[in-house]
Amino acid sequence: MVEELLGALAGVAAAGAVYVAAAARVVKQYERGVVLRLGRLAGEVRPPGFTLIVPIVDRLHKVNMQIVTLPVPAQEGITRDNVTVRVDAVVYFKVIDPASALIKVEDYKYAVSQMAQTSLRSIIGKSDLDDLLSNREKLNQGLELMIDSPAIGWGVQVDRVEIKDVSLPESMKRSMARQAEADRERRARIINADAELQASRKLAEAAHQMEDTPSALQLRLLQTVMAVAAEKNSTLVLPIPVELLRFLERGGEEHEGQPPRRYAADAVESSADNGEPQAVEPPAEREIEPPPEREVERTIEDIIEDASGK
């Protein structure tokens, strides 16, 4: 009798062990368990840890609750300003409702991937090329809203969307490079012109200052000569002031071209010879005609030769 009782207990224990082995499930920390009993959702979502189900009757589906990184294949499209580009992105999302993610959509990862590709093409068509290159934060936010709106009904939440790369045709890259180069050249010319304007104003102030003190011009001339001579050059250029050349020109013209003037004493003597006093009139000033250019150049060259000979 005792042996039969022990045998029965051993059989029950064996059956219980087999049942527990068939019904026992372990849900990991980053997972949640959804039980379908005879094809229908049964009870609440099972938390992480050890759990039991009814063998043969229940089916436990584990849903990953981690953030999923989903790369979006490169999509080719035409922007609003008629430029062909290829844009790829990456989507970060996670499941917030395991039951909806399992029941309401067949494959939520594939669904999110297709929605991301469609939204990316739509964003390309609605945006300009400059926005794709420089205003990506705004485009990322718009793309995130476009993907997240239908994904909420699937029990999925989109955390972030990032546009990774924008590929342009080679011709467009060359055009943009030329445009950037032209813009930099324009700014360089403007800066040079501004510098020339400021320098001309300072030079004008210096010229007015030197006009008040002529000795400053001579000092500046000597400084220039010293700066040129300090370089150990074989040729020394000595500038001659323009005022000196003009003075020498006037002296040469008076010496060579004008007849001698009659003064008041000569007029008095001529009147005495005639016996009648006459009023003495000052000689009229004659307008001196400038000599031809050839004679002026010859006069300047003769003066320079005489000065060098002496």
TrEMBL record:
Residues 283-298 have a biased composition (Basic and acidic residues). Residues 22-180 form the Band domain. It holds the Pfam family Band_7. SUPFAM superfamilies: Band 7/SPFH domain (SSF117892). InterPro entries: Band-7_stomatin-like (IPR043202), Band_7 (IPR001107), Band_7/SPFH_dom_sf (IPR036013), Stomatin_HflK_fam (IPR001972). Residues 252-298 are annotated as: Disordered. Belongs to the band 7/mec-2 family. This is Slipin family protein. It comes from Streptomyces coerulescens. The lineage of its organism: Bacteria, Bacillati, Actinomycetota, Actinomycetes, Kitasatosporales.
